[in-house]
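pasting for ref
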Amino acid sequence: VRRAARQPAPAPAPPTPSERAAAAAAVLNEQKLGYRAMPSPTTLRSGASPLDSSQSVNVVPEQVLKDQLPRNLDDALANVSGVTQTNTLAGSFDAVIRRGFGDNRDGSIMRNGMPLVQGRALGADVESVEVLKGPASLLYGIQTPGGIVNTISKRPELYQHGSLTVIGSTFGGGKNGSQAVVDVTGPIGDGGIAYRFVGSGLDEDYWRNFGANREVLVAPSLAWYGDRTTIQFGYEHREFSYPFDRGTSFVNGAPLAIPATRRLDEAFNRTWGKSDLVQGSIEHRLDDNWKVTAAYSFNSETYDANQLRITSVDARTGVERRSNDGTKGAMAYVSYGTSYLQGNVWLGDFRNELLIGGDAQRRVIYRQDLIRQATPNFNFYNPTYGLVQPGTTVSPTDSNQTDQLETRSVFLQDTLHLTNWFSLVGGLRWMEYDQLAGRGRSFVANTDLDGSKVLPLAGAILKLNEQVSLYASYTQSLQPTSSIAPLTGGFVIGSNIAPEEGTQYEAGLKFDLNKRLSGTLAVYDIDKKNVLVSQFNAATGLNEYRAAGKVRSRGVEFDVTGRLDDHWSTIASYGYTDAIVTEDPALVGMRLQNVAMNTASLFLVYDFGTALPGRLRVGGGPRYVGDRPGDSANSFVLPSYTVADIFASYQTQTGPFPVTYQFNVKNLFDTVYYPSAVNTLNVAVGDARRFSLAATVKF
């Protein structure tokens, strides 16, 4: 009897797109646990690795945000060198200084490489944060010379998964809070379409003697991942109510002798409103060498605010004078569109990596009714709250505050690869701009200008090997001078006033060791000229304005993030910033306000791996900010401070579901510190010690 021939086993079915995505995500998630920095292509508008760029980009990775649970963008950027806080508009805006420059309305906060106007940018739908240091006008147009901050959205993914996180928190003394976050993503059918939904709700008592933080965020998104084309669409809606807290006051160089928890205003001091963000992008690969990208973003925010503004304090008697102020009908929006082409052109034996594009932007900031009303004095040594109601008297001359900016630009960048190890970078942006700013009923324009400018970029990159490169660059920035408030003598800032221009020389070393530990060591020198200055003319008896001021910032920065070995991971930084006024009628030699000469941070994490039944990770570390001038005249100094944070997380299995428990302590030693100041009357007070316990269920 003849045996039947053995039939070969059927070939296994090829993995589905969802299975391939899940397998790739498992590998990626393990790298993320080790604080692997993975820059987004939206920051440099290319897929170039940091080693192949002549500019400095620092990344706060996704896992760092999960471990530290920063409460706002200022918290997250404490991990980055040379960054300090500036005027946050009483805690309602992200406001950071980079390399000596930045404010709360400078247009430098981005989402996926496109500008935002909303006050707070770090929500539950943000995956990571990146900082492009130095003048970034080649890619981002009108900017200060400090750089831009790019928040990266969570994207739809092609395999089904989700999580639910519940957080309880307390500052002690009955100041408690709760938060819930849901994050679900997955495929829709088998055609490469995916969705994601992120939602969060926060209700937390403020750590000082009254107030509360409340926020609701809803962020759905869709994506289609085709063979050559990727289309993405995202929407974010946020409603918020925050304390409008200007902090405390300094007298004779010291804070008022009252508890840090004691506020100088009233419980109605708060800001409330909503913001909406819509973004869409299309990326199409034309062939193996060329791809084209088009993207659009619209961001709007409306809000109202009540504030008792401090006008004077008497440290001897405790008497405080206040003005019962407010803002009603405030609105801001930015509309932005860009399109660019990326590809390679060979000229002989040399590869040219080209980026060619253009963009246009319209940004409007408007405050309808400004409240200005007298109110009785207040004693901060023996406070009696609740005797004052919100102001209602509208000041016509202060209302209808308007700032409109329009820009149109084209840009070109070429990376010329002379060898496999040496490249030259050159680029140009041509842009034109119009700006109108003023206030009052009837409206009075205090800024009315237009202009155009060509801005260059040049750089060189020398790769010592596949893990280390040296770089040098020359970059410029431009920002028109503007003022909403009237200037002395009815002076109007027009096109005859040159815009502020920044110039930077930078050199440094970058490393990416075994794709585990990466970092940058940079030295830089920035000069900003054409700063508007006022000088009294004794002959005419008037203040005269001219673009004659200059400031300079130079420094050294070191940033590192990643895995030290199989158990230890870190993110650490050090920044030295020497920022002073070099030309001004009254301020020559003064340090720039809120800029610390020294900053440092260290966050270490130990991962026990599989040594325990579950996965235990513990970590923590300090962040240090040196002393800073509290105003432009350097009349008082904010003292240096060191704040420590710790966390522990434990991942286990509960039935079919992975569950992670996480315990955090922010400001472990309950340090009283002052992160920024507007002037002696308005000095921000850093948050007190905060405990939180979170549970995350994955499904």
